[in-house]
Request: fold
Amino acid sequence: MDYFLTDDQIMIKELARQIAEEKIVPVRSDLDEKEEFPWDVMKVLAQSDLFGLFIPEEYGGLGKGCLELCIAVEELSRACLGVSTTYAANALGTYPILLFGSEEQKKKYLPDIAAGKRLVAFALTEANAGSDAAGIQTTAKLDGNEYILNGTKQWITNGGEAEIYTVIAMTDRTKGARGASAFIVEKDTPGFYFGKKEKKMGIRASSTRELIFDNCRIPKDNIIAKEGYGFIIAIKTLDSSRTGVGSQGVGVAQGAFEEALKFAKQRIQFGHPVISFQAVQHMLADMAIEIEAARSLVYSVARYIDSGAKDISKESAVAKVFATDVAMSVTTNAVQIMGGSGYMREYPVEKMMRDAKVLQIYEGTNQIQRNVIGQALIKETAKLL
Reply:
C-alpha cells in the first residue's frame, strides 16, 4: 500500500532497510547464539544519523517525529528484533529528557545522544513494580545539593551498555504515585552498579540487566522537571514510545511473512509447491491482511502524535496491542507453514517467533494496555452522557 510518505521518509525507510540487509541479516544468528550486544550495528546507525531522527535540530538531531522513528524501527525489526530493541530503547530512555528536561539538561545530553555517542536506558521496572509502577521501592533522598539513590531496577534494556539512565525513584513514599520523581544517572557514578545479564528466550542481542543503587549520589540538578513528576513523566514517555513497539511488531511480522512466502513457493509436496494448497494460501492471506492493518494503524497513530495531540494514551495502547498481537500470530503461522524447517535454527522464523513474544510483555503488557483502553472508553462515554 502507498502510505504517501514524504521523500525524506522514503529515504529513511530505504536507509534503514539497507542497513538491515547489509549489516544485520548476516550477523543476526550469531548475535542471537552468542547473546552478543550489537555495538557494530549501533555504530553504523550512529554514522547514518538514525539516532538523531526524533531529536530537534537545535540539539544536533534531524528534527523528525514519531512516524519517522517508527519507519526506521520497523525496517530494523524486519531483520532482527534484538537489534531494533537496542535502538528503540535508546529513544525510550531519551524521551524523559526530551519531553520534560530543562534546557541545560537538553543541551548537555541530547547532542551526544543524537550523534550516537552515548546510549540511553529507561529504568522504571522493579521486582515488585512492573505494571504496578506505583509500587516502586527505589528511593531518592535530597541531601544538600545531592540526591542519594538506593534500590534496584530489574529487566532494564541496554543495562550495563548505556552511558545515560533515566531513573524513576520515590522522593516521598507517603504520596504514593505522586511521590515519584525522575532522575538522570550517568554510568560511572559512584554507588551505581550492574547486576547479572539476564538469559532470555528471545531478543538475545539486547542487553537486559539489573541496576543497583547503593548510596548513589547524583547532583540535585539531575532531577527531571521537579519532585513528584516522576509518574507523569513515566506515563507520557511510555505513551510516546508504544507506537515504536507497535512498529517492531509490524517489522518482525513482515520479516516472518516474507520468509514463509518464499519457503511456500520453493517447498514441493505431492508434486506441487505448498503455496498451491488453499490451506496455505489462506494462512498467507490472513498474515498479509493482519500486517497491512497493523501498519496502517501504527502509522496513523504516529501521525496523530506528530500532529501535537496531547491525550494519546488510548491510541498508543491500541497500536501497541494490535500490532504486537499480530506479530505473535504471524510469526507462529510462519513457523507452521514452514513445518519442521521452520522449527530449526537454520531458518530465521524460529528466532522471530521467540523474539516476538516479548512485544506483548514489555512497555506495559497487552492486558494492561487493554485496561488503559477500557478506562479511556469509560471516560469518553461519560462525556457523551
Remarks:
- The mean pLDDT is 96.
- Residues 30 and 36 are 8 Å apart (CA to CA).
- Residues 230-266 form the longest helix (37 residues).
- Strands lie at 120-123, 139-143, 146-157, 164-170, 180-186, 192-197, 208-219, 223-224, 268-269, 272-273.
